[in-house]
Amino acid sequence: QVQLVESGGDSVQAGGSLRLSCAASGYISISCLGWFRQAPGKAREGVAAISASGGSTVYADSVKGRFTISLDNAKNTVYLQMNSLKPEDTAVYYCAARRSWCGGSWNTAPMFGDWGQGTQVTVSS
User: Fold this and answer.
1) How far apart are CA 80 and CA 102, in angstroms?
2) Contacts of 41 (CB under 8 A, 6+ apart)
3) Residue 38: other Cβ atoms inside 10 A
4) Which of 80, 91, 109, 120 lies in disulfide reach of 9, CB 3.0 to 4.6 Å?
5) What is the mean pLDDT of each run of 10 residues along the chain (125 residues)?
6) How far are the Cα atoms of 7, 66, 92 from residue 21, in angstroms, in the given order?
7) In sequence order, what DSSP letters do the residues of 74-102 get, joined into one string?
8) Greatest Cα-to-Cα distance within the chain, rounded to the nearest angstrom
9) What backbone phi and psi angles, to 5 degrees, belong to 46?
């Protein structure tokens, strides 16, 4: 079973930046890693995903050009660099992993079998 541990959440002002980290163990069986977020009263939504090789990335339209997902295979860690943060980015951010390719369902939460505990990101205006 894959274990995922997120870190890096914080409170920042609009326009600021944060980098989230997700350390993974049991990584060898993973094909796709994703970041999701969930705001109060809203459904969990996909933010970005990356193939285990690091060669393919995909983003939600709402974060394109502002967020960057990356992977350090030597450290078994996936990152989410978040720039130009907006109040609507406020949410609990989760790291997730799956054994199938990211593909067209990269932003479908039930397709991911392993999840971290989440880290809170709060953006104030």
Assistant:
1) 16
2) none
3) 15
4) 120
5) 94 98 85 96 97 92 98 94 98 96 92 96 97
6) 5, 16, 13
7) TTTEEEEEE-S--GGG-EEEEEEEESS--
8) 41
9) -75, 135
